[in-house]
Amino acid sequence: MGDRSFRLSFSPQRHGSLECVNRKKQPVEKYERGTRSYTMSHIRGKDTKIEVLVRSYLFRKGLRFRKNDKRYPGHPDVVLPKYHAIVFVNGCFWHMHEGCSKHSMPKSNVEFWQAKLLRNHNRDIAQRAELEAAGWRVITVWECELTKAVRDERLVRLYEQIVEGDADSAE
């Protein structure tokens, strides 16, 4: 075991996690072996904070919609049949938002992450094309557009894109 020791931490942030530290009290590993895989397996693809934020705003504005409808390619986050519009709320990392500071390629296991994120990106492009070919207006809202500084402006613009049918600005 060398110069490592283990301690059980009960701080509110760690919730009793086992933390590996060296004698200089610097964290060596954040997770116990096997814990990272378990943690990552519990990241879900629906009802994220940003999705709930967008849906609650649209609902407050009087729009009624379906959420995560499996009948459409990509299981869109919000489907508004009355306006023939579909909204995807994408995380910048998982969907490779180009030119965004929240998207960066992980430095470990680069080959795996490049392949995975590129698959996600290509699948998004194909699903968008399929929906547009079926006559839907597809609107993408990015995680970085929902930061506190620009959130209100983006949500107002989203509402206008849906109601007024502004397809030109539907990125």
From TrEMBL:
Enzyme Commission number, as recorded: 3.1.-.-
Transmembrane segments: none
GO biological process terms on file: mismatch repair
Gene Ontology terms for molecular function: endonuclease activity; hydrolase activity
Highest taxon listed in the record's lineage: Bacteria
CDD domains: Vsr
Top EC class for this record: hydrolase
Pfam families for the chain: Vsr
Keywords: DNA damage, DNA repair, Endonuclease, Hydrolase, Nuclease
Gene3D superfamilies per record: VSR Endonuclease
Keyword DNA damage: yes
Family recorded in the similarity comment: Belongs to the vsr family.
Function statement: May nick specific sequences that contain T:G mispairs resulting from m5C-deamination.
The protein's name in its UniProt record: Very short patch repair endonuclease
Lineage of origin: Bacteria, Bacillati, Actinomycetota, Actinomycetes, Bifidobacteriales
